[in-house]
Amino acid sequence: MDLKSSGDYANDAEASGILEALDRALACPSGYVSDLIFWPKSRNPTAAEVVDQALAYRPLAL
Q1: Confidence class of residue 62 from pLDDT cuts 50, 70 and 90?
Q2: 29-42: string of b/e by CB count within 10 Å (b at 16+)?
Q3: Which of 39, 33, 21 is nearest to 57 (CA)?
Q4: 22 near 33, Cβ under 8 Å?
């Protein structure tokens, strides 16, 4: 998914803010959702698949 080509945001700062808000809302570390979108393990995940992967995130227990 390429946010830049979709035109769904005004500038890079807005896109970063949206991705950071998703990280916080889904209780993921900073940059985690961005990695799922821009560097996915599978080819072209759907939005639902990205959210499912983000919700499945569990921090390592030490």
Answers
A1: confident
A2: eeebbbebbeeeee
A3: 33
A4: yes
Q: What is the largest CA-CA distance in the chain?
A: 42
**pTM recorded for the entire structure:** 0.72
pLDDT digits (tens, 9 = 90+) for 4-31: 455 577 788 998 999 999 999 988 999 9
- What burial class does residue 25 get, using C-beta atoms within 10 Å of its C-beta: 0-12 exposed, 13-18 middle, 19+ buried? exposed
SS3 label, residue 50: helix
Q: In whole angstroms, how far apart are CA 41 and each of 10, 14, 32, 44, 50?
A: 28, 25, 13, 9, 10
